[in-house]
Structure formats: structure tokens, C-alpha cells
Amino acid sequence: MKLLLLYCLLFLSSCGYNDIFDINSSGVVLNGSNYKYIKNVTGEATSTQILGIIGIFGTKALVEEAKNKMAVEAELYSGNRALTNITIDSKVMYFLPFFTSRTVYLSADVIEFID
Asked: Is residue 19 part of a domain?
């Protein structure tokens, strides 16, 4: 019975942690009369690895992939739109001893500059 409990604790357990990054640096000047708020957008990307080294899903750069998804949702390429208040959250989960899963979440506010 103790051996079974030890097996379950060692091989069927998982753990994870979250990182939060804030990247609010740009040279754009925002004042109350030169822009309007459009909406909040999000992007997400996940990578899964076997034994911490062999990527099986999501082998691209996670932040880049999530940012591209967010840009499409924000319709950045149609008009004078920009992202502001960009926040990056990262979650790593370990499924011992075989799998590691990392997910990156981006969120931002979309603004549109007024001529």
C-alpha cells in the first residue's frame, strides 16, 4: 500500500507556476484628445515538451505566436490602431516525470488614433 502511494505521488503528480510581465514601454504620446478606446484583446499560445527537451506541440516562439493572434483580433492592419497596456502572463505546468507545458497569455487595450 505504501509503495502504491509513493508511486502515485512521484509519477502522477504535477506542479506549475505563473510569471507576470508588464511591457508598457513605447514612444507614443496618449492624451485625451488624440485617441479613442476600442476594446480589450487577448492572445494565447502553448508549447508542450517531452522530457523537457523534445517539443511536440507549439514549437514557435510563444510570445510571438500569441502577439500575432492578438494583432489579428485587434484588426491592427486596418486603420490607425495600436496596442497599449500590454501584459504577458506565463504559466508552466510540470507533469512529472515526462511532460512540461508552457502557456503564454497576452492581453492589451486597442486604441485608435483620431486625425
From this structure: yes
